[in-house]
TrEMBL record:
Residues 2-142 form the Nucleoside diphosphate kinase-like domain. The chain holds residues 29 to 175 of 178 of the full protein. Belongs to the NDK family. ATP binds at K10, F58, R86, T92, R106, N116. It catalyses: a ribonucleoside 5'-diphosphate + ATP = a ribonucleoside 5'-triphosphate + ADP; a 2'-deoxyribonucleoside 5'-diphosphate + ATP = a 2'-deoxyribonucleoside 5'-triphosphate + ADP. One of its GO terms (biological process) is GTP biosynthetic process. Keywords: ATP-binding, Kinase, Nucleotide-binding, Signal, Transferase. The active site is at H119. This is Nucleoside diphosphate kinase-like domain-containing protein.
């Protein structure tokens, strides 16, 4: 085992049928998918997950978007998983990623700064918080913690 990070395929990725491409890209990049679950987030859960952004002007729109359809949440394992997954998904703004990182997942599947197809933890500290937010990782099963 290496390091763990949290990956999420957002509603635009699910609705746009990008799931197979994204998971194939993940596996081809030597990540191991340790856990995965598809969830329809409610507003309370979405607000908790994105709490660090709660004061931003885009927060209400972000909550509308992330609760608009199911999301697929995965725990990825690899040496340097956090930085490798961030590199693979590319810049937050998918419209800019198309110009600067055309082979990134966000460039290929996303649309703009909000509808950017995937999420990735930005640090090992965030990864630990985000993984325990969705998964009970004290056992090996795919249990989702209650909150
Ligand atoms: P993510 O990496 O999941 O982290 C926070 C999310 O908020 C981000 O991807 C985007 O979906 C959204 N976001 C970030 N910045 C903006 C912005 N300036 N305008 C709208 N949405 C944003």
């Amino acid at each position: 085992f290496g390091e763990r990070t949290l990956a999420m395929i957002k509603p635009d990725g699910i609705v746009g049928n990008h799931t197979h491409f994204i998971k194939t890209t993940i596996l081809a990049s030597s990540f191991t998918i340790l856990q995965e679950i598809t969830l329809q987030l409610d507003r309370h859960t979405a607000q908790g997950f994105y709490a660090e952004h709660s004061s931003r002007t885009f927060f209400p729109d972000l909550i509308d978007f992330i609760t608009s359809a199911p999301v697929l949440i995965m725990v990825l394992d690899k040496v340097s998983a956090v930085s490798d997954w961030r590199a693979l998904i590319g810049p937050t703004d998918a419209s800019k990623a198309k110009l600067t990182h055309p082979h990134s997942i966000r460039a290929m599947c996303g649309v703009n700064v909000q509808r950017n197809c995937v999420h990735g933890s930005d640090s090992t500290k965030s990864a630990a918080r985000e993984i325990s937010f969705f998964f009970n990782h004290t056992d090996s099963g795919g249990n989702v913690s209650e909150h």
